[in-house]
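Repro:
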Amino acid sequence: MGTQNISIAIDPDSRKKFLKHLLHDVEAFDYMMANGLVEKGKYRIGAEQEFCLVNSFYKPSMNGPDILEALDDPMFTTELARFNLEINLLPEEIKAGCFNKMEDELTKRIKKVDETAAKFNDKVILTGILPSIDYQSVQLKYLTPRQRYAALDEVLKTLRDGDFELNITGVDELIITHNNILFEACNTSFQCHYQVQPNDFAEQYNWAQAIAGPVLAICANSPLLIGKQLWAETRIPLFQQSIDTRGKGYHLRERQQRVTFGNKWISEPGDVYKSDIARHPVLFLTEIQRDSMDMLQSGEIPELSALNLHNGTVYKWNRPCFGVHNGIAHVRIENRYIASGPTIIDEIANLAFWTGLMKSMPDDFRGADKKMSFEGCKENFQKAAMWGIQSGMVWNRKPVSAQRLILDELLPMAENGLKSFGISDKEIKKYLTVIEHRAERYQTGARWSVKSFRKLREFLSRDKATVALTAIMHKRRISGLPVCDWETAAASEIKNITFRYENVGNVMTTDLITATEHDLAELILKIMEWRNIRHLPVEDKNGKLKGIIFKANLTSLIEESGDSASLTAHEVMQKNPLTVSPDMDIRAAVTMLTENGLTCLPVVDNDRLVGLITNKDAKKMAANL
């Protein structure tokens, strides 16, 4: 999806022409792989650094496109949302000093964007999911104004024929529908690339799948979304669900998501491409001037533009990649499941660990008789996403904790792999010690975030706690210490943080006790007494607001009634109350409360009750307006 010159695959003639190029690209790929036209004998690594931008109040920034223009650097590029940008790091041959060199380059580029963002009063956060993202941050005004992003939003909504749906359950649960693709933009990754040998591609790809579970477990860094504690790596279900093109409904047939781990080991280099073309319709077209097979017959190396475009719209967690540089073709595996951050040294340590493991693939993993089933490999990945370093796995057909697997087996394998590349003991120790300490101390980015968030929630509201966590995360990143050495967030660290309320959605209460119109008034009064609440909304089975009950009024009506036992919510509720929307300016909501002498306002979105804001909330926020 890097190309700008794309169109939606609707026009029949253009589609036929593109599909012909796509089929010829697959044929050309197979031919080049089989006939020595793909580079061998070279091993390289590369990376793409996605990062978040927050404003002076540690909320998602709108300034990404302006900051990109000010950077004026071709190594930086846009992402889906205005609050994200990406750095493309130069590839490095794997040899002594290569990881130090990549760390130095990344540090230099992050420093440059730090300085540029500061001119806009913005800051850079390295994290898998920005803790302070709220529902307002995923509205279309945050979509980066680029044609390819608008096209992606349009085509995915057309394929789904309905809203996007999220249903993620962890300690908390997030069940929500959304009318655009911007929840996908909440994902921020550190994508790692590893160049492999063409004759070893299939086995190396299978090995990348096999190690994905334990690598994800030690790299997990995304446990929060909209203030909800979900999976250790919430990016996994979020990405899968936020751009799922399958419509809802009951289907006996199996249909794969466009974001997928895969469904079997591969036996030939082109298997992944062929499966994806068979299973997933073409979303976009681009103008292609020359046929890839014609180019091969002329002695030229084609770039396989059609294949690469389609491959860029099927989001494998381990994605095969074909590229051409200076007329030389190469193949690599892109690791897409590692989250951004929380520090530069953590990211380079993740890259070094994965690279060492890729090189140390055991000989007995080759061939059809592997030591694990594909289903077991996929299960390891799923459990790692859910539980991170606390998960259990199956390795060599035996159960083992992720911690012991990493410490006892995978770290020594990674060390041997890096040594075989000529990496010095000092460089290996610098990065693998970071992985070792994370495992020993059970302190990944995910675990630090959860512990710190829970500590902050002891004295802050949910929204404030997410903002405070983001601010403290930025402070820790600047310190340069890896996450394994971070102290849990403390109350003293919020003294210099300015909390700003903008929208009703930032301050409304969402954990509501509600009634239906047919509930007994006496029962409602008891519930209000038990829960010490003054207001209780009444809704129908679809969540549509029908009215609101005030405790003072309810008590009087029950006392005055001659038949209180039959009194229902319908008879005691205030019908058609004033309401506000979650994106309403908080100042306007406060004005409505005070001018109308109200003690609460129901918050409604698309006719459905989503929250409640009270005069007590208004008093608390007055100092922050």
